[in-house]
Amino acid sequence: MKRWFGPRKFGWGARPVTWQGWLSVAVYVGLLVLVTRFLDIDTDARWTAIGLSTGALLALVYFTYKKE
């Protein structure tokens, strides 16, 4: 499997290194904008959607991280 994320040059964390990584970050940001700005849902559902999408992105980064 090709790695989508790699280590940052400075600091700690991960950064996208392929177009798939950048696309997954863009989809995540799009979901956050959709949930916070355009969907008319109550606060608990909004926080649940934000938590699930954040957890999904973190899991994706964990399983596609390239250790150098």
Q: What is the string of SSEs from the N terminus onward?
A: EEHH
Unreliable sequence segments: none
The gyration radius over C-alpha positions equals 14 Å
Helix content: 55-70%
Distance between the termini: 16 Å
Mean pLDDT, to the nearest integer, reads 89
Strand content is: 5-15%
* Outline type: elongated
- Give the tally of structural domains: 1
Please give the largest β-sheet. Answer: 2 strands, antiparallel
Which secondary-structure class do the elements indicate?
mainly alpha
Strand order of the largest sheet: 1-2
**Strands, total number:** 2
Q: How many helical stretches? A: 2
Question: What would you say this structure looks like, in words?
Answer:
The chain is mainly α. It has one domain. 60% of the residues lie in helices and 9% in strands. It has a two-stranded antiparallel sheet. A hairpin with a 6-residue loop joins strand 1 and strand 2. Helix 1 packs antiparallel against helix 2.
Summarize the structure.
The protein has one domain. The protein is built from 2 helices and 2 strands. The chain has helices at residues 19-38, 43-63, and strands spanning 5-7, 14-16.
